[in-house]
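Predict structure. Chain length: 47.
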Amino acid sequence: MTSLFSTFDSTFLSSNGSLIFLHLKCNAILVKCQRTVKPIQDNELNL
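Prediction complete.
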């Protein structure tokens, strides 16, 4: 079982695992930015 996982990990990471990881990381950063920017915009509208 562990050998299967290790081979899967190596092939997955060598192919497009890093791309997917970067994509998810960028998405998380975008979501965080939207969450911080939106309340600021709402506050400006309330003023």
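Summary: DSSP finds one helix and no strands in the chain.
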